[in-house]
Amino acid sequence: MESITIELARQTDIPYMLELWQDTPGVGLGPGDDEISLTAFMQRNPTTCLVLKYQDSIIGTVLGGFDGRRGYIYHLVVHKDFRRQGYGKKLLQEAVKQLKALKADKIHLFVLKTNPEVEGFYEKQGWIKRKDIEIFSFNAKDKGEEE
Ligand SMILES: CC(C)(COP(=O)(O)OP(=O)(O)OC[C@H]1O[C@@H](n2cnc3c(N)ncnc32)[C@H](O)[C@@H]1OP(=O)(O)O)[C@@H](O)C(=O)NCCC(=O)NCCS
């Protein structure tokens, strides 16, 4: 479709991005997925957070983040009515291009174990499923507030 564009995400897009994620099984929402945190994330990563737009509606997203050492991809989503038309690939490629421009030579992403359907997509794009790493997480906010 001609009028579908990839654009930099703006703060005013956030409520619509959240709506899309809430409607999409496979997207793990957690701390960081609220207006304040997402605004901060987008300010820190002004070139790597993208939306896919069709007639002013947000039909896709990807958040790229760079911590100075590694790049990360979060919330790659294409609305179900627009899948399998190459947009997921384009969003991912653009986010990777922008992360590479920041010198993020290695990029990671997380896939929920409840969402194995997506693995084939990433493998097709050349991503490698790691078998040598386990993820450990620490809820720093909760612990810090106890002190
Ligand atoms: C993953 C997702 C973004 C893919 O978007 P999409 O626009 O449908 O993907 P594309 O059309 O760009 O697909 C690119 C290629 O991958 C293939 N592909 C797409 N989804 C696939 C899947 N689930 N399994 C295997 N291959 C897949 C396509 O056939 C296409 O192959 P081709 O290049 O040989 O033609 C989309 O399925 C989605 O939003 N899923 C729900 C949200 C989600 O789980 N996100 C990931 C969170 S980690």
If you average the pLDDT, what whole number results? Answer: 95
Query: How many individual helices?
Result: 5
Span between termini: 54 Å
Strand content: 15-25%
Characterize the biggest β-sheet. 5 strands, mixed
Can you tell me the overall shape? globular
Structural class: alpha+beta
- Low-confidence stretches are none
Oligomer: single chain
Helix content: 25-40%
Q: In the CATH hierarchy, what is the class?
A: Alpha Beta
Radius of gyration: 15 Å
* Architecture (CATH level 2) name: 3-Layer(aba) Sandwich
- Give the name of the CATH superfamily: Gcn5-related N-acetyltransferase (GNAT)
> What order do the strands of the largest sheet run in, or round the barrel if closed?
1-2-3-4-5
SSE series? EHHEEEHEHH
Q: Quote the CATH topology.
A: Aminopeptidase
**Count the strands?**
5
Question: How would you describe this structure to a colleague?
Answer:
The chain is globular. β4, α3 (87-101) and β5 form a beta-alpha-beta unit. It contains five helices and five strands. Strands 1-2-3-4-5 form a five-stranded mixed beta sheet, sandwiched between helices. It starts with a strand and ends with a helix. The protein has a single domain (4-146), classed as Gcn5-related N-acetyltransferase (GNAT) (Aminopeptidase), CATH 3.40.630.30. By secondary structure, the protein is an alpha+beta fold. The protein has helices spanning 14-22, 35-44, 87-101, 119-124, 140-146, and strands spanning 4-8, 49-54, 57-66, 71-78, 107-109.
Which keywords apply here?
single chain, 147 residues, Aminopeptidase, 5 helices, globular, binds coenzyme A
